[in-house]
Amino acid sequence: MSSPIQSLLDCGTKLWIDSVDPELVRRDRAAGATGATSNPVIVTDLLTSGRFDDQIAQLGRSEVSDEKIAWELTDRLVRQAQEVFLPVWEQTRGNDGYVSFEVDPLLEDPELAPPHTQRVGRYIELAQHWSAGHRNRMIKVPATPAGIDALEELVAAGVTVNVTLIFAPRQYRAARDAVWRGARRRRSLDGFKSVYSVFVSRVDVYTAQNVPELSPRAQGQVGIVNAKRIWAENCRFWSDHPTPLAQEIVFASTGTKRPEDLPWKYVEAFAGSDIQTNPPATNEAVARSGLRFTRQVDRLPRPEVLEEIDRLVDMERLEAVLIEEGIEKFATPQKRLLALVAERRLALSAR
After folding, report:
1. How far apart are CA 247 and CA 253, in angstroms?
2. For residues 226 and 318, is the Cβ–Cβ distance under 8 A?
3. DSSP for 272-324?
4. How far apart are CA 93 and CA 87, in angstroms?
5. What ranges in the chain are assigned the alpha helix state H?
6. pTM for the complete prediction?
7. One digit per residue, pLDDT tens: the chain, 351 residues?
8. Residues 246, 247, 249, CA angle at the centre, nearest 5°?
9. Which whole-number Å values give the CA distances from 223 to 181, 230, 321, in the listed order?
10. What span, in angstroms and rounded, lies between the C-alpha atoms of 181 and 218?
11. Which of 28, 168, 199, 273 could be cross-linked to 17 through a Cys-Cys bond (beta carbons 3.0 to 4.6 Å apart)?
12. Residue 99: partners with Cβ closer than 8 Å, 6 or more residues away
């Protein structure tokens, strides 16, 4: 009898771990994971553990800035994960086995507020820098106005992108169309790969707080319905625009937030296709569940539930609120990461 994780993989899901912790990466790769993602929260948590103090101390003895140390450590962690998943990339000829690297979240920081054109230029510059020489590294670019405006040039230049912070269909379409324009500027579509990270649980947190009039049958389903609709649209688009490699949806933010929800609620809902990037705790709960997962990704609630969601949820407002919150949820941890490096560097130098 297959394990719950194996049943998830068997029904068509690709599992990426939402961490670049070297120990978790090796463990989850052995369990069947085929990729990983990184962000400032993950890196900060790893450095807080003290496990990387020797590396901080070593880098701290040089005359580089705290910011450069933070990015060097991030780069090292992502490189190590890439080595683990490189065989997957080679076996699938570039269709899987990636590790995502996040471009500087402070480009969207409201406190710094760089002009739009400057943000676009920096996205292009940094993405090309951090992707150079890496076969199985994806560059995470947010579906903000500046991020979307950078996508065409990045893809045309050969950068493999993970478009992140997608909360609504409008963002997905704008990002996908920009990516496709860039892809058509390449000499060949061979090696062209893109993914679109649709955030799920945050949508349900939003509706619980801002659309309390949703009935119990609809409340807690909006994130699932929204992501499944984007997934179906993505399937249709790339079916009409075939490419050698799959252009896929990443179901992100799959850890449940509501106490009444089972920890595998979203894992089960999206089983059967494309990619899930799950927090380690979610994967651990799935492994303990004893469940056998089957394809659910193309199943939607009853028509009356869909009608209620469409009638009561203002997707434009939802997108505006969640993209603002999403920017803060990455910019603030990046600031904490820089402060942590400075603090640890000083403490270690005093030993």
Report:
1. 19
2. no
3. TSSEEEE-HHHHHHHHHH-------TT----HHHHHHHHHH--HHHHHHHHHH
4. 10
5. 4-10, 22-31, 40-48, 53-60, 66-91, 116-131, 145-156, 169-184, 201-210, 222-240, 265-269, 280-289, 303-312, 315-349
6. 0.95
7. 579 999 999 999 999 999 999 999 999 999 999 999 999 989 999 999 889 999 998 998 887 899 999 999 999 999 999 999 999 999 999 999 999 999 999 999 988 878 999 999 999 999 999 999 999 999 999 999 999 999 999 999 999 999 999 999 999 999 999 999 999 999 999 999 999 999 999 999 999 999 999 999 999 999 999 999 999 999 999 999 999 999 999 999 999 998 889 999 999 999 999 999 998 899 999 999 999 999 999 999 999 999 999 999 999 999 999 999 998 888 898 999 999 999 988 888 776
8. 120
9. 28, 11, 15
10. 37
11. 28
12. 20, 35, 36, 37, 38, 78, 81, 82, 85, 136, 137, 138
SS3 assignment, position 168:
coil
Q: If you ran DSSP here, which 8-state letter would residue 17 be given?
A: E
Residue 195 near residue 37, CB atoms below 8 Å:
no
Q: What are phi and psi of 36, to 5 degrees?
A: -155, 165
Task: Please give the domain boundaries of the chain with CATH numbers for all domains.
Answer: 4-349 (3.20.20.70)
What token pair was written down for 13?
A: 């899901």
Sign of the alpha-carbon torsion through 47, 51, 55, 61: positive
The three-point CA angle 135-160-73 to 5° equals 65
User: Distance of CA 324 to CAs 72, 145, 163, 329, Å?
Assistant: 28, 12, 16, 9
Pick from 232, 231, 221, 305: nearest CA to 266: 221
Backbone angles phi, psi at 72, to 5 degrees: -65, -45
Cα distances from 348 to residues 45, 63, 221, 274, in angstroms, run 18, 15, 48, 44
Report phi then psi at 191, rounded to 5.
85, -5
